[in-house]
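pls ignore typos typing on phone
NAP + seq
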Amino acid sequence: MHNVVIIGSGPAGLTAAMYAARANLAPLLIEGWQAGGQLTTTTEVENYPGFAKGIMGPELMKEMRFQAERFGTVFKTGDATSVDLRSWPFTVIVDGEESLATKSLIIATGASPMTLGLSNEKRLWGHGVSSCATCDGFFFKGKELVVVGGGDSAMEEATFLTKFATKVSIVHRRDKLRASKIMQDRAMKNEKIAFVWNSIIEDVLGQDVVTGVRIRNVVTGKVWDLPCAGFFLAIGHHPNTALFTGQLGIDGAGYLLTNHGTATNVPGVFAAGDVQDPHYRQAVTAAGTGCMAAIDAERFLEALGA
Ligand code: NAP
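k done
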């Protein structure tokens, strides 16, 4: 019987683990098969407090993991494949096999990249279609690339890709970016980046590998093909809440509903980070809510006399 099981190994899960471990709760953290969350697929993190010169995303996650481990967090590599929150103590099944019983649960399952839902996007995934510039940018030395999206991720991905590509076109469905001013300015000043405004991707072209994208201007209706060797998606993320459907309150966009800090509608189940945050979605806010969730879990256990 565990005091606290944490699902998720991004900043929210690891911060929750560190706090729970320091409260002598001996937390068990299910870290997935691809540990570390979204920051492991990003480059330089410049806005995480305490790193004045910036830090690479994977390095930051490594440090957070060490810190959680140092105080006694036990890590389990594997995916939580089902949960039973209808009876207490709660049950979490890992990889369809191992059953864990826990008095409290912290959900920090984060969010996953969204796709456009085009059949050729799926077919050519890994053959020129990607959602991770840091993972795949290297393969496109001297090539022309397309990034879709108008938020911080699109600016960041495009800027990073200019290290390898000769040209990066950002295709955005409006004529205004959603990205923060500093990220916009950086992309706009970059001579290798071009913007294709008011346009959507209608198709991804290529037989075995990506050779281009078909674009439609939503104002003029003009359709044209833009040749490229790689197509990167940066159109946002959807929260990873499928595991909890029917057991926890979820809003219309799929985020877990929380109130009074990190409490879900089931006493003893708490949610932290991007899985419950449609507004801020920053590494530092995820870490902040991870800390809150651990404190909330500690108080829940204290009230139980557990
Ligand atoms: P986002 O802010 O939600 O932006 C998504 C972008 O994709 C928007 O411009 C949106 O267009 C566009 N889009 C969405 N669905 C689309 C579709 N079906 N077809 C075409 N375009 C579509 O997502 P994000 O850029 O991943 O950022 C998520 C959060 O992480 C934000 O809070 C951001 O600040 C943060 N972040 C921070 C950093 C950093 O500070 N270093 C880096 C990356 C991300 P519209 O604008 O028209 O809606």
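The longest strand covers residues 98-107. Residues 47, 116, 148-154, 156, 173-174, 178, 200, 234-237, 281 surround NAP (CB under 6 Å). more later
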